[in-house]
Amino acid sequence: MKRIPSRWLTPVLVVLALFATSCGSDEPAPGTGARGGDGGEQAQAPEHPEGSTMAAIQAAGTITVGTKFDQRLFGQTNPRTGEVEGFDVEIAELVVEAIGPEVEIDFVETPSNIREIAIEEGTVDMVVATYTINDARKERIDFAGPYYVAGQDIMVPAGNPLGIGGVDDLNGKRVCSVQGSTSITNVRELAPEAQVTEFPLYTNCADAMRDGRVDAVSTDNVILLGLVEQYGAEVFEVVGNAFTTEPYGIGIPKGDDQLRSFINDRLEEIFANGEWAAAYERTVGTVSEETPQPPAVDRY
Fold first, then answer.
1. Do the domain assignments include residue 1?
2. What is the pLDDT of residues 25-53, one digit of tens each?
3. How far apart are CA 190 and CA 173, in angstroms?
4. Residue 170's domain spans which residues?
5. 239 and 168 in contact (C-beta within 8 Å)?
6. Which of 17, 167, 225, 236 has a C-alpha 20 to 30 A away from that of 287?
7. Are residues 234 and 105 in the same domain?
8. Which residues does 248 contact at the CB level (< 8 Å), separation at least 6?
9. What is this structure's pTM?
10. 220 and 269 both lie in a single domain
11. Which CATH number characterizes residue 92's domain?
12. What residues have CB less than 8 Å from 87, skipping those under 6 apart?
């Protein structure tokens, strides 16, 4: 569900209310007047075009967002809280906040191989899940964004025992990536002699390489950095030679131009006001050396 930052205000408001009561004052305690109990102006519900997806979501008070639950830094379930966390999650929250401040998010696990299906079947309202924009996918769904640009790279065992320096070196090697991803397609096209293994999740690939069943894992560089952080630099390393450009977009149903324009407007807003950079620094930025400039959205 959507995180509610105002929860930290509750204890303070309770204390203030009790203090006012004990003093016998007829005046409302600070933060308990006509503006509600949050100590300030209540966020105004935005107005959306009648009949739009945004108006329907606002009226329902909830939205279903597909993301990944095992993607370090982007979308991963916190074992302590049970909540999914990461850059994709925060981008989704920032977008939904503009639909309506009271709208709650139901995050649904949506791995790479079912993202288009989930959108087409209406299982989710949108997908924010390290989702590379490409022409084949745009035949089935629409994208807002991009909100981030990655590049495909290669992860190998620490010390790089086979001396893999780039995509050409994957020929003849046992290489793993996930089902339904652009990464697996790129490996097959650029290293046609690679022995390709597919799994549903990148952690499956990482486990296979740790166990010696594959020689390398290839996907977007930031995903690989998350796996290195998760498993340890003494276990894996990233080659550092990206060979593709991977623009991440927000997947939505085909033909919903109003929703697409709304999300693009919101992305440009958070690019400009610093919220995008702050979300990046809290997540991907914990393992990345610098915060990049946000990309230009594609209005096509």
1. no
2. 343 333 333 323 344 455 678 999 999 99
3. 13
4. 152-238
5. no
6. 167
7. no
8. 88, 130, 131, 132, 133, 145, 146, 147, 148, 149, 150
9. 0.79
10. no
11. 3.40.190.10
12. 73, 74, 148, 279, 280, 283, 284
Assigned domain for 45 exists: no
Cα(172)–Cα(168) distance, integer angstroms = 10
Q: How many CB atoms lie within 10 A of CB 2?
A: 19
Q: Are 149 and 125 in contact (CB under 8 A)?
A: no
Is residue 12 domain-resident?
A: no
Sheet strands side by side (includes 104-109): 104-109, 62-67, 126-127, 246-252, 142-150
Among residues 220, 245, 218, 225, the alpha carbon closest in space to that of 73 is found at 225
DSSP for 67-124 reads: E-SEETTTEEE-TTT--EESHHHHHHHHHHHHH-TT-EEEEEE--GGGHHHHHHTTS-
Q: Is 30 part of any domain? A: no
**Which positions ≥6 away from 47 have C-beta within 8 Å?**
none
Q: Is 247 helix (H, G, I), strand (E, B) or coil?
A: strand
Lowest mean pLDDT among 7-16, 187-196, 221-230: 7-16
Closest CA to 228 of 179, 168, 160: 160
Question: Do residues 141 and 251 share a domain?
Answer: yes
* Same-domain status, 64 and 142: yes
For the chain, the straight-line distance linking the first and the last C-alpha, in angstroms and rounded, comes to 32
Sequence-distant (6+) residues with CB within 8 A of 235 are 157, 158, 210, 228
Q: Are residues 166 and 106 in the same domain?
A: no
Q: Which residue has the tokens 């893999």?
A: 164
**Considering 238, 255, 274, which residue would you say is the last residue of a domain?**
238
Number of domains in the chain: 2
Across the range 63-73, mean pLDDT stands at: 95
Given a cut of 60, whether residue 112 has pLDDT beyond it is yes
- Report helix, strand or coil for 183: helix
Q: In what order do the strands lie in the sheet with 75-77?
A: 70-71, 75-77, 84-85
List, for residues 245-296, the tens digit of each pLDDT value.
999 999 999 999 999 999 999 999 999 999 999 999 999 999 887 899 999 9
Rounded to the nearest 5°, which phi and psi values hold at 205? -65, -45
